[in-house]
Specification:
alpha/beta, Rossmann fold
């Protein structure tokens, strides 16, 4: 079987490399000629553990090829995946421009049956828009070529995407024809042989499943952040509360960790898009509206804690910010809590020194020279008035606190992810602030 994946961003590149690893011939297409030239030379445009080796291996074996012209490869493709971006518009709705551009090209180019599959996250009803778009182009050609549309949403965690794809919890596929089901069963046969479940459903349900899954996870995060903030006010310890409720099998322990807000390419965008979809159907998603409001407020929680510690006098204070990406094991800074925090700190007149193991190039692109970029966390601590832990990278977990204290102006740590032992730091001479505990 031969497939084409349009879009070599995070979803498209991971999907293409993993399918190629399973023996499928993959053509990965992108309109960005510079990116494609880099991929052909072995340069990977994103940071994702294990992806570089997988791309190099399968490109060398001839199973993974890169190009810019969809029309040049579509005639020998059985399945075309759309993995292009669906960025949020000003009103929160997903922008389907790029998805429909792919559909138009498919309608203008196909000469035999294909399955058009949406891989990127799209609102409910997108499959029908794609179907209409392809049919419109076929009518212009006076061509009667059969095709099917399917939905195959991704459930990849940045930083663990290869493992998620190769050993998925579930594979969700929305179809409305037996022929499309046969094609998708053949494509995913290596996964079903390994015991990974494939769930077939109607297309609208598959499109909704992706949004509902991310909205539920976002809800758990905002819920725990609200609980953590209340714990501080009533004198409770959110660690103990989390263990207490997480031991209930109806709730479970995952995604019950309080912090300084969620970010990334999925949760913020998908929550906004689901709220917008509901509004278009004259329904108000009040729970998700609160989830979004709590998260936006939570992104500023470290700033407010710092402001309170210094009695509202932050001008001229040097602040070390540890971690810039929205989560560990990625360089992705889309909707990252660090950006909201840094914006507030700069507005208050702070001098900011930052470090992140992977996201420094992306940070320089976004923040330019508004902050200082350090070579490691120890350099950020030089003459700092406070350290703010934003992203819980593993290399931040066991620093030499004595060495850090000796170079700081005032030894203050604000732990936005609760990865440190507050008592240990206080015994070392620091003032320590965590999330959801005194």
């Amino acid at each position: 079987m031969k497939i084409t994946i349009v879009g070599t961003g995070y979803v498209g590149l991971v999907t293409g490399a993993c399918f190629a690893e399973m023996g499928t011939h993959v053509d990965a297409i992108d309109i960005d000629a510079k990116k494609i030239a880099g991929l052909r030379e072995g340069r990977i445009p994103i940071y994702e553990p294990g992806l570089e080796n997988l791309v190099h291996k399968n490109a060398a074996a001839g199973r993974l090829n890169f190009g810019t012209d969809l029309t040049a490869v579509i005639h020998h493709s059985d399945i075309v995946f759309s993995a292009v971006g669906t960025p949020p518009g000003e009103n929160g709705a997903a922008d389907l421009k790029y998805v429909l551009d792919v559909a138009r090209t498919v309608g203008r180019s196909i000469n035999r049956y294909i399955v058009f599959v949406t891989k990127s996250t799209v609102p409910v009803g997108t499959a029908e828009l794609i179907r209409k778009t392809i049919r419109k182009e076929l009518r212009k050609r006076r061509a009667d070529i059969p095709f099917d549309v399917a939905s195959n949403p991704e459930f990849l965690k940045e930083g663990a995407a290869i493992d998620d794809f190769m050993r998925p919890d579930r594979i969700v596929i929305g179809i409305d024809s037996d022929k499309a089901k046969t094609f998708m069963e053949q494509l995913y046969k290596p996964f079903t042989l390994n015991g990974h479940p494939v769930i077939f459903m109607d297309i609208a349900s598959a499109e909704m499943t992706k949004y509902a899954a991310n909205a539920m996870l976002a809800t758990r995060i905002s819920f725990m952040n609200d609980i953590a903030n209340l714990c501080e006010r009533v004198g409770a310890n959110v660690h103990e509360v989390r263990k207490g409720i997480g031991s209930d099998p109806r709730i479970g322990a995952k995604f019950l960790y309080p912090g300084c807000g969620y970010g990334g390419s999925c949760f913020p965008k998908d929550v906004k898009a689901l709220i917008k979809t509901a509004a278009e159907h004259h329904y108000e998603m009040r729970v998700l509206q609160a989830v979004e409001e709590v998260n936006e407020r939570q992104k500023e929680i470290l700033y407010h804690k710092l402001d309170k510690h210094f009695n509202g006098d932050l001008k001229g204070k040097t602040v070390a910010v540890w971690g810039l990406s929205f989560k560990p094991q990625t360089d992705d800074m889309r909707e990252a809590p660090s950006l909201a925090l840094i914006e507030k700190l700069l507005a208050a007149g702070c001098i900011i020194k930052t470090y992140d193991p992977a996201a420094m190039p992306e940070a320089k692109r976004i923040l330019a020279d508004s902050v200082h970029y350090a070579k490691d966390i120890y350099e950020t601590a030089q003459q700092a008035d406070a350290i703010l832990l934003v992203t819980e990278w593993k290399e931040f977990r066991l620093p030499d606190w004595n060495a850090i204290k000796n170079v700081m102006k005032t030894p203050v740590v604000l732990d936005g992810r609760n990865i440190y032992d507050g008592d240990e730091l206080r015994n070392t001479g620091f003032e320590y602030y965590g999330m959801g505990m005194l």
